[in-house]
Structures are given as structure tokens and as C-alpha cells.
Amino acid sequence: MVAKKRDPALVVIQLSGGNDTLNTIVPYNDGHYHDNRSNVGIAFDAVLPINDELGFTPHMAPVKRLWDEGKVAIINGIGYPNPNRSHFRSMDIWHTALPDEIGTEGWLGRATRDLDPKAENVLTAVNFGRGLPRALGLRGVPVASVGNLDTYGLFPDMEDQAMRKYALDAFAKMYGSGAGGDAVMEFLGQTGSDALKGADILRTAPEKYTSNVEYADNAFAKTMKSVAQVMLADLGTRIFYTQHGSFDTHSGELATHASLWDDISGAIGDFQDDLKEHGREDEAIIFIFSEFGRRIKDNGSGTDHGSGGTAFIIGNSVKGGLYGEYPSLKEEDLLEGDLRFNNDFRSTYSTVLEQWLDLEAAPIVNGQFEQFDIIKK
Questions:
Q1: Mean per-residue pLDDT over the chain, rounded
Q2: Environment class of residue 12 by beta-carbon count within 10 Å: exposed (0-12), middle (13-18) or buried (19+)?
Q3: Apex 249 CA angle, 246 and 250, nearest 5
Q4: Which of 358, 361, 341 is closest to 349 using CA atoms?
Q5: R_g of the chain computed on alpha carbons
Q6: For residue 67, what are the contacts with CB-CB under 8 A and spacing of at least 6?
Q7: Which residues, 6+ apart, have CB-to-CB distance to 152 below 8 Å?
Q8: Which residues contact 87 (CB under 8 A, 6 or more apart)?
Q9: How many CB atoms lie within 10 A of CB 359?
Q10: Are 253 and 20 in contact (CB under 8 A)?
Q11: What gap in Å lies between CA 227 and CA 373, rounded to an integer?
Q12: Is 343 buried (19+), middle (13-18) or exposed (0-12) by CB count in 10 A?
């Protein structure tokens, strides 16, 4: 029997708070690193070597295993011109792909629209977490936002369809008085209808799922298990989004950073094993990013906001390797004490959009950008 050909899926993991590049992909043989990280540096003999110059933090062992299998692309020096050290502004830039102006449309919202131009599937994009990330925001594009897949639903205790519709109508009427009320009710009614439909479909995913992979007992691992459940349920979801943090390690960095990467790396390893068990490892890639890196010199027990970050693309369909240049730590090469970026994040976006999702990237990322040769053909 020929295996069913499925559309490729993209899993996006946002490292909220500004992940410390230098303690993630560690330049362990560079004296400038150890001189500047006397308090929060990772010891030479603790890293998981990539080559004679760089190594993973020891808390990324499952990702290192995938690296050894050729499934991890490390994108060094990623960023954008005139870096902004504000969490909110920098994340907004990554979400809208507009470094020089305030954007109103998320890049993945645009991608979702192009994947499903008639909005026929309310689950084309699913966010795992509270609220809706700006990256997925675009008027007219439905996105399901799931806090807990096991209990997800709109009025989940109401099994009767008519009662739930009554509750939704009552909610809409609270906002429907006065001028423009009909338009508001129409918008809320459509949103409620989409949410209700999405909730009903998503609630079927856990009951369809079986696996021999045991995910760890932490919040992020449970999220990645939910991603696997929805993907394996074949609900037509193409974009999965989640976030983890906070990586805002101004103090107590060594312990906090270690714990965060223990959770993330372990969950990614389990997720990849889960897909492999089901024969689906070729159908998804993971893209990991953070809004900025951190300062080169530590502040005593942590690091402050910086620039020049690292991103990852992981999957069986990925050409593993190092992309971009690891920024120089020499004082004369720094940007006000920060690492200098050497490749625009929109190059990576364009690579994922065109080579993986088969979409025209330029209208989504607001321009033409050189792409990496990361995806296997």
C-alpha cells in the first residue's frame, strides 16, 4: 500500500524573553567568551562539541543527538538592521517582518491565508497557549488558540448544540447594541462559530492518539505532545505555534537557562521520536527563534538584552549544518557590546515559506531575501 501523501507542517517555537546565544551555542574555544563570562560562562569541558570552536550547552543533549543524525540546521548571527533591545518592539518586528515600521499583519497569518485562501479549515493554524501571537494575527484568518488540549472547548460542558449556540448568541448580543451593532454581531457570530467548530474537531485528537513515547512531565513537553496529537489526527493543520520562557535571564541565568533548555530539548527529542514511530518524520520541521540575544559581558549573575541571535530548523527533511557566521567576539567587531547580526531573519522565513510550505515569500515577508539551502528536495 502506498503511504498517503500529506501536506508539510511547520512547528514554530518562540523562545520568549531573549535567549542567550552565547550559552546556547557556546564558542568554548574562544578566550573572549571566557573573559566576558567569568560568572555565567559554561566550562570548556561541559559543552557538547559541534566542532573545534562551537558546542551545544550540556542541556541540549536530545538536540545534539538529532544534530549527529544530520537533522539540525543552526542559523548563527540571525537578526535585523538597527536591533531593538525592547522585548515588545523586537518581538513585534519578528512577528510582522517589518523592522522599520509598525506592522498590523503577522507573517504566519499571511502564510495561513495563502495556504487556505477561502478559510475553509478553521484549523489550518493552531496556537498552543493563551491568547494569539501577533505572528498569527490577520483579520479574516481564523486561528484556534488552545490552552489545554485535553480540556479544550468553547462552553465544553454544554453537550447540546442548541444550548451552546444560545450561549454564543447571548454573548454576541452583549456587544450588539447601538450603531454598528449588526456588523459587530456578525463578526462575533462568525468568530464564535469558527471557535465552536474548531473546538469540536480538536477535542477528537487525543482520543485518536496512541504512542509508545513517554513525554516528560512538564508544561512544554505536554504542549509538544499536543502538537503531535493534532498533527497525527490529520485535521489539516499546517502551522503549529507555541512559546516557552522566560529567557529574560538578568539574574540567576545558569540555573534558569539550563532548566529551560532541558525542557525544550527533551520535548523536541520526544516529538521527533513520536513522529518517527508513526512514520511521519518527513512531514514536519521545527523552527525555533527568539527576539534577540544577550550582552556578551555578564552582569554578575546574568546577562542583559543584546542582539545577534541563533535560530534552529530541525527535522528529518532538514540539511543539518551551520548556516550564517558565528559573530566575532573581538571588541572591535562588536555592536555597542553586542554580537553583530550577519543574516536577516527574513532570509530564514523566506527559506521556510518557499522551500517547505511552497508559498511565495516576498509578499509575506515584505521583500526579496536570499535563502539558505536547508530543506531537502
A1: 89
A2: buried
A3: 135
A4: 361
A5: 21
A6: 50, 56, 74, 320
A7: 146, 199, 202, 203
A8: 16, 17, 18, 248, 291, 305
A9: 18
A10: yes
A11: 26
A12: buried
Strand partners, 14: 243, 289
Cα 230 off chain centre by: 16
Cα–Cα distance, 99 to 337 (Å, whole number): 21
Handedness of CA 374, 347, 7, 62 (dihedral sign): positive
Q: State the Cα–Cα distance between residues 40 and 249, nearest whole angstrom.
A: 11
- Beta strand extents in the chain (DSSP E only): 9-15, 25-26, 48-49, 55-56, 72-79, 125-128, 144-146, 239-244, 284-290, 309-314, 321-323, 343-344
DSSP H helices in 234-368: 253-277, 345-351, 362-365
Assigned C-alpha cell, 269:
527529542
Residue pair 356/286 in contact (Cβ under 8 Å)? The answer is no
What would the pLDDT profile of 307-350 be if each residue is shown by its tens digit? 989 999 999 999 999 999 999 999 999 998 899 999 999 999 99
Dig out the grid coordinates for 368 from the structure: 526579496
Tally Cβ neighbours within 10 Å of residue 103.
17
Looking at residue 370, its amino acid is E
Angstrom distances, CA of residue 125 to CA of 48, 109, 159, 175: 35, 8, 25, 27
Tell me the C-alpha distance between 34 and 294, whole Å: 15
CB 202 within 8 A of CB 150: no
Phi, psi of 179 (to 5 degrees): -60, 140
CATH class of the region 9-152+203-365:
alpha beta
Give residue 269's Cα distance to chain centre: 15
Domain boundary assignment for the chain? 9-152+203-365
Degrees to nearest 5, angle at CA 264 with 258 and 270: 130
All cell numbers assigned to 303: 546577562
With contact defined as beta carbons under 8 Å apart, do 167 and 155 qualify?
Answer: yes
**Higher-confidence position of 315 and 377:** 315
Which cell goes with 324? 550564517
Residues in the chain: 377
Q: Could you read off the pLDDT of 202-232 as tens digits, one per residue?
A: 888 998 999 999 999 999 999 999 999 999 9
Q: What angle do CA 319, 74, 72 make, to 5 degrees?
A: 45
